[in-house]
Amino acid sequence: MPETSDFSLDAAVAGGIRCMLMRGGTSKGAYFLAEDLPADTATRNDLLLRIMGTPDPRQIDGVGGAHSLTSKVAIVSRSAEPDADVDYLFLQLGVDEPTVSDKQNCGNLLAGVGPFAVERGLVPAGPDTTRVRIRMVNSSSLATATFPTPGGVVDYRGDTAISGVPGTAAAVDLEFADTEGSITGSLLPTGQVRDVIDGIEVTCVDNGMPVVVARASDFGLTGYEPVAELGADEALRERIQSLRLQAGKLMGLGDVSAASVPKTTLVAPPREGGLICTRTFIPIRPHTSIGVLGAVTVATALLMEDAVGHDLAVIPPPGSPMKVEHPTGTFEVGVELDTSATPPRVRRSSLVRTARKLFDGTVFPYAW
Q1: What residues have CB less than 8 Å from 219, skipping those under 6 apart?
Q2: Which fold has domain 195-343?
Q3: How sure is the predictor about 5, in pLDDT bands with cuts at 50, 70 and 90?
Q4: Neighbour count for residue 84 (Cβ, 10 Å)
Q5: What pLDDT, in 10s, does the model give residues 236-266?
Q6: E strands, the chain, where?
Q7: C-alpha dihedral, 7 to 8 to 14 to 15, nearest 10°
Q8: How high is the pLDDT of residue 126?
Q9: I need a surface site. Which of 148, 169, 248, 361 has the fewest CB within 10 A?
């Protein structure tokens, strides 16, 4: 990504940085052009922490929303790759800890990248709809976003509803390529469909997001507990952390104690006519729903007959969307898996999200 080489914090504090705040899916983040940020990674990260208001559990002195789902950044630029229009780098910023991680993708903020690219003039808008090819820098995977641009202008209004977001908005259709083994290099990074960690059977899988899938019942849970109840269970957090630390090594990720991946998803039989019911932790804090690529990855795992949770799932007919149930609703994804291959191969992954521009202007980092 091309970036400016000269940067002055004093100038940024005084004059601000061009920024667009957007809701992407069930997340919210600050979107920047790469050229508007400093070239040096450490300097850039320090600036973004100041903009977000980190470290502070309330993020009161920045634009962060005091939650990992609202402490996110998307950095976008024209792509030099022939099969992509733009490059998208996702950064997960800590809330009460001054951390900046590029170790994962974010499929929620991805929903806003295409509209942002059109708004910033990186991609010309079509007369009715626009298709933007996006290289996800974190994993070098490709995604294509299609969204309405009537009259050559992005229209965020529509009648598509997604769980976890009030009201409706325009649909953003997302199709993925090359997400298999996005971070670990393999769909089954341990080389097995099942592993045992701390006496718990798990399936470690990566189709856009490294995820550890385990049965909720093996943790003494129903899998239908409210998020607040799970979040208050300190013993559960310790078990989840132990599980993912060991899984991280098995998946080739090394020491993940300071990383947000792998995610852990506990599964139970569906109750709302879906594929499966889930409770996800990021990395040990319970998610109010489930991440975009996390949902894709969990659905992928459950299509494998020997995977943990396959026996709990209600698999729809081939070609039908799969509804992944989560604490605030359902998440509809599409996955086509070639199970005749060893290991299985992902043919296609897709989903529908929505996005909305919240503000476009100048953000001022704190100087203290």
Answers
A1: 200, 236, 239, 266
A2: Diaminopimelate Epimerase; Chain A, domain 1 (3.10.310)
A3: low
A4: 20
A5: 999 999 999 999 999 999 999 988 899 999 9
A6: 17-24, 27-33, 72-78, 86-93, 100-101, 129-136, 141-148, 171-177, 195-197, 200-206, 210-215, 263-268, 276-281, 322-326, 329-338, 345-363
A7: -20
A8: 98
A9: 361
Q: Chain centroid to CA 45: how far?
A: 19
358 with 29: CB under 8 angstroms?
Answer: no
165-191 pLDDT, tens per residue? Answer: 999 999 999 999 888 998 999 999 999
pLDDT in tens, 99-146: 999 988 999 999 999 999 999 999 999 999 999 999 999 989 999 999
Are 25 and 31 in contact by the 8 Å Cβ rule? The answer is no
For residue 318, what pLDDT is reported? 84
Count Cβ atoms below 10 Å from residue 280 Cβ, excluding itself: 27
Question: Across residues 306-321, what is the average pLDDT?
Answer: 93
162 confidence band (pLDDT: 50, 70, 90) = very high
- Do 143 and 108 touch, CB atoms closer than 8 A? no
For tokens 């290991």, the residue is: 343
Q: Is the separation of the CB atoms in 103 and 90 below 8 Å?
A: no
Q: How far is the CA of 120 from the CAs of 91, 125, 134, 143, 191, in angstroms?
A: 20, 11, 15, 19, 43
Pairwise CA distance, residues 299 & 322, whole Å: 7
Cα–Cα distance, 368 to 365 (Å, whole number): 9
37 close to 3: Cβ distance less than 8 angstroms: yes
* Phi/psi at 115 (5° precision): -55, -40
d(CA 258, CA 351): 30
**Residue 20 · residue 116 · CB < 8 Å:** yes
Question: Does the model's pTM come out above 0.85?
Answer: no
Report the topology of domain 9-179+354-363.
Diaminopimelate Epimerase; Chain A, domain 1 (3.10.310)
Tell me if 9-179+354-363 shares its fold with 195-343: yes
Q: What count of other Cβ atoms lies within 10 Å of the Cβ of residue 89?
A: 18
Reduce the DSSP state of residue 300 to 3 states and report it.
helix
